[in-house]
Amino acid sequence: MSIVDTVKQTAQGLVQGAVSKLVPLAPDSWVPGGVPDPLIARQHGLIGTSVSRLDGPLKVKGAARFAAEFALDDMVYAALAFATIPRGRIATLDVAAAEASAGVVAVMTYRNAPRMNQPAVFGSGPTAAAPADLPIMQDDRVAWNGQPIAVVLAETQEQADHAASLIVATYDVEPSITSFAAAKAKGAEPATFMGQPLSNTIGDADAMLAAASHKVDHIYRTPRHNHNAIEPHAATIAWVGDELIIHDASQLVTMAAATIADVFDLNAEQVRVTSPYVGGGFGGKCLWDHQILGAAAARLVGRPVRIVLTREGVYRGVGGRTLTEQRVAIGADADGHFQALIHAGTTADTPHNHMPEPFILGTRAGYAADSIKLSVDVVKIDMLANTFMRAPGESVGTFALESAIDELAVDLGIDPIDLRLRNEPEMDPTSGLPFSSRHIVEAWRAGADAFGWADRALPGARREGEWLIGMGCATGTYPYYRMPGAAARITLDRAGKALVEVAAHEMGMGTSTTTTMVAAERLGLPLDAVEVRYGDSIIPGSILAGGSQQTAAIGGAVIAAHNALVAELLKLAGNDSPLAGLSPDEVGSEDGGLAKLDDPARRESYASILGRAQRDAVTVSAEGSPPLEQMHWSMHSHSAIFCEVHVNAVTGEVRVTRFLGSFDCGRILNPKTARSQFRGGMIMGLGLALMEETDFDERNGRIMNPSLAEYHMPVHLDVPEIEVIWTDIADPHTPMGAHGIGEIGITGVAAAVANAVYNATGTRVRDLPITLDKLLV
Is 743 a catalytic site residue? Predict the structure, then answer.
């Protein structure tokens, strides 16, 4: 990262730190969520009912256009060539054969690429979205093994792919660091995440650990992981005069448009990014080099460009999760009370971005302890920039923490669930904030009953033929987030139809359906009277589909827009309305109109108000309130994960035969899509536990398994029966009473599997993935 970006992040962190000290002191009523959302009290409306995804029929019929399905006149197709060294300079770059190949229109390299500004790295500003602070194809520098060095443009994709294979490059190799051991030997530094330090100290944990009568102290390791969405990254790009149109697969259309505008010296309104459908994101469908390279190539040849990354191209140019080495040490008394809790370790990062894996985040609010010591150190490796990957930090951090708790339970002879409940905190252990809503105890008890936890045997005691059988459990946690900048625009017409526009994203999780449900409920309209538009940077506001916060961000924005709509309608209603003289705070929406909250007889329909005002429609826009609630309360989604495994005593093969997830995530808005979200996260956790690992050649920094043939993930036959239950207890301090559910499903799963494997075999595996070689000992 540049010095300027580092200073910006530091300044943002200082401001955030100052605000976070003041907000907890404010009265509840001064903070968003201090007064419960009125939708929480509605128990018989749309919210909480199972609604099929509104975009489902379009996808089934093939009518939903994804980024690589926009057909533009005179379009050319792009293919990339990649560097094969970790650091250095391009010495020679022979593109003659590629240029002479059939159908080739042009080959773009650093020699002829349009001049572009260095993109703003994510976190350096409110609209910064780039993965790294490196210039893109502006010089002969190589910063990682896999960096794009040429873009071939041809009349067909096949012609472009063939020509790219003809490019020959040689390099002047420079010294690099590509091994974790070498990076650690050079020295680590304290890590920060989103401008905040990744460290907490309460009491003297080292001394209390040493004095504890019972203790565990082990190292747990997790490998690199790569993104593998069903839809590879793609963009269809065209210049229309001085305006740039990008049909993208994106989780952050507004931020991408702003960052790309700066790269090409354009005003923000000159770049439009659309992303109506995304075939899986999980943190990887943000801004990468390929969108900017595609835009530059389109400018170079004066024709629209479609750029679709191959599966290998995704591995070469799109970051994933970095490796971690974590120490967890817990000291306890004979009753299991935690006297010391230490969670510390090292993760890898790159010289050109700052995205360490923040594995202590879940530990901060997980358990009460007399002393706590948490820290993350980071070392630098010359490799592709890291990025967010579903539940960054929590997914791998809970593996270490929850495995250690299971190990301590064995040492103490205490049931693992009971040990966790004995250390349930009354308030956030590190921040001291009260919990806005925490019902993990109820989730544990309901889950244990539903799973049949009472039938669990001692390690190695259950066997059916060659198969050893075990049960394991773990807690999962993920923070509630609501990021600033979300806005909504509502257009209400005289026919009682509403158009709600939010710069949000539909990545298959049902966002458009849930948003329609929430908007209809808030406006007092039937579901078919509301249309939601999203995935377009020309819509006001900026919403990132990440951090499981999109539903809360949309909800807060729609609340603000609805308040503005009520105020505008009251002005239009005038003195002849039954609502005359009422303030917006006294009025709500129901049955296609406005009504006095404590006297529903005083009401008037939307059609009547607009008709008397001689208006066909009314449009309002508003931005959601600052998300100060997450500084006033400790806010989290929680889960209790249960797992049953069969382990073959001869081959070491592990088969997960049952999963149950018991979730505490506030109010569940749409049970049908929520259940799918929870199950999808748990399946990703199964891959994390048993299969997923990026093979990184530490001699030269090259990813060696860049395909689904070699990077293993769960398929249908690997996935067992998955039962999902939830508390459905509304958080009174969030929009709709809901928490995020996208990332809580994966957290805790790897530990539950590892703990079940131990219960089956008596063998403890502390390095993911749990492969058979680690059990044949």
Answer: yes
